[in-house]
Amino acid sequence: MATRLSSCIVAAALAAFASTGAFAQSLLEQPLTPEAFSACVQNLADQTSTAGRPLTRTDFLRIAGNGKYDDRVRQSMLVAAGEPTFWWDELAATTDEDRVREGRAILAREGATLKKIEAQFGVPREIVLGIYGIETNFGPSQGKIPVLDAALSYACLRPCPASASGGAGSCIARERAYAAVRVLRDKRVRAENWQGSWAAAFGRTQFVPDSFEQLAVDFDGDGIADIINSEADAWATTANHLKQRGGWNMNAPVYLEVVIPKEQQAEFAATGKSIRLPDRARPLSQWMAQGWRVLGPKGEQLTPQLTGDPEMYPFLPVGLPGPAFLVSRNFDTILRYNRSERYVMEVSLLASKIGGGGDFVTAWPTDDPGLTRAQVRELQAWLLQRGHAQVSADGVMGRNTRDAIEQEFVARGLPPQRRVGQRTMQLLMQPQ
Ligand SMILES: [Ca+2]
């Protein structure tokens, strides 16, 4: 639930918004006033008796009274929801060579610790590293918004439906605010520097306070579960999440790339959405008996013999034409970590590459494949030279970069677009 990945949860957040009606949607249109925020905090205080875990009104007010409204939360919700992005861009950037190299270096350096975590929790070390890489770029990108402020602002921007009368899970945003207060009450983090994403996810593998309370592990044995400073604690906490919320089958890959038999392809034609059919789960051998072909790294046909013949089901990110997969229940387990199919594939592809695997064999349906982060930085440096001072060369295709790209396309008399791939980067940057 990293800052960069916020788009993943935003879709779910906005879907929930929709169900609470126009009033909630209108809350995002302008910053909350100090009066509205203060009234909201009071309102939260009045409902502490419904908290999933005990929290007194007095404790809530004492601690939440130090919280501030942070408008970056609202802005992030709007930005992430408004900009369409593509699988081939996101996967190219998030699993690029630099990140794979860094992941392998950590695997080499910390192999003993990762092996112990794998043995204790039954979760592959590459998957733990995949999550670490995608969430915070292996540590440095943990977010810069005070977690208490983020949790309170989020709860106030996303009020609970009236039907949420209380109890754990009845209202995620409110529970998160209560959990943030309890984490401070119980002194489980240092209050003065507790920062994270707009959605209040913090630490090396980005836990929200409610998950942290339930799942945090002290793995390095110093008596504190410290997912901010200790890699071992963060990794074990992540492995514990996967183990507790779904579990891991060590005999099953997250995905196998497949070719679907011609006569069965019609139902998988592109619809503009992903196609995921968990109800069709059945043993891999049955898919293969029906003519589904498993692809190896060079496009060769494989006949994997997996212990226990795990159940798998079809998943197509963009439909056909495009990459097609059979995925296992391990896919669902990662999905419970972060409710985004793209996130699951980013983590799994990065994990596979760290373990020596390669990109998908089947091409995405585009003639303009995505850029690595190094290429995005090169593009941004060029945009800066062209006078787009609002761009920063950080390798992230954010709104300012997309605005500048659009202006450059227009300036060249080309059809405007807000992304650049391998082909259009050449086109855009060639001397005129
Ligand atoms: Ca520790």
Automatic annotation (TrEMBL):
List UniProt keywords, sorted A-Z.
Signal
* Signal peptide segment: 1-24
Specify the Peptidoglycan binding-like domain's residue ranges: 373-428
Question: In which domain of life is the source organism classified?
Answer: Bacteria
Q: Where's the Transglycosylase SLT domain?
A: 37-351
Cite the Pfam families for this sequence.
PG_binding_1 (PF01471), SLT_2 (PF13406)
Name the chain's protein: Lytic murein transglycosylase
Q: What is the lineage of its organism?
A: Bacteria, Pseudomonadati, Pseudomonadota, Betaproteobacteria, Burkholderiales
